[in-house]
User: What shape does this take?
Amino acid sequence: MILEMKVPSPGESIKEVEIATWLVKDGDYVEKDQAIAEVDSDKATLELPAEASGVITLKAEEGDAVAVGAVVCLIDTAAAKPSGSAPTPVAEAPKAEEKKAEAPKAAPAPAATYAAQAPSPAARKILDEKNIQPSDIVGTGKDGRITKEDAVNAVPSMGTPTGGSRGAERVKLSMLRRKVAERLVAAKNDTAMLTTFNEVNMTPINNLRNEYKDAFKAKHAGVGLGYMSFFTKAVTRALQLYPDVNSMMDGDYKVAYDFCDISIAVSGPKGLMVPVVRNAENLTFRGVEAEIKRLAIKARDGQITVDDMTGGTFTITNGGVFGSMLSTPIINPPQSGILGMHNIIERPIAVNGKVEIHPMMYVALSYDHRIIDGRESVGFLVAVKEALENPVELLCDNNPKKAFEL
Assistant: This one.
């Protein structure tokens, strides 16, 4: 029996996918549920499993755009599974008595060549300071000897415009990457995007983490107490104080939400993914950390789905893990705001009239000025800062053990 495998719908509104990579070859025997291809949609990269066991016949090439519901391959379910092939023979090691062919020895350079390049002791010292090899200059002394004057006048080689590699490679972007590019351009062109900045003293959070992180991880089956749960809870608190930041433009209307679905930017093998933590305002520290860990593992393993990334009312992105000190994050449309975290650097700051060194982080809020005014944007970022600098009171209700479920 010949089974026609058709492209399943990866999600609502997706009309076609692109064959990113075939994981099998034409004529291979495949097992039921075996991953046979990776397909790109405009929202995610997904694996395509075989619907039955049998010999496969491919009906599309890598890079082809295939409509949802179209036949992508045939599987002959009546074909017998081939028996295992014999192991590849291992080549025998050469016998001890066999002599290896000796490579011809390079002829020694004439003694005059070395003599011509030999600098005087004074010239040698100058060349070493300039990091110049004697072979790179021509001596003007007797028999071509490099003099001190030659060394003083020598200029380090800056290279030449020819002779190096000048190759180029033209690679088609994946459908996902093309969609990301399209959305980024749209965000720049279709929104009145501005960015406001502030800085956060991370000492209170560091003190809390140092005190409770070991007990937290032991109690919650390996889930760590990271920075993201503090930032997520600080953001959900600020969104409830400034609901315009948790709203979106829809034509001539503003759509406001009474829930906080927080998109968290994570790095995956196919690029940046933005899965969503649903109803983050109702989650505990453990709940936030466990959900972010689950989504990050799915993104890392290429198992993230369209549903995981659909929706979201606000985004948090952490460029600090890559060393970014300050940036202007771009809005994730149709959302109206995105918070950028950055790396933590110890810097001197004024505390009660005295200079102290504290771990500091710059934070940035990019927002759509069509719907969010300056008062709301600045007030939101200040509220995030206040919560992060006073986490015991504002995020833990003055009871960290209860907040961390210890």
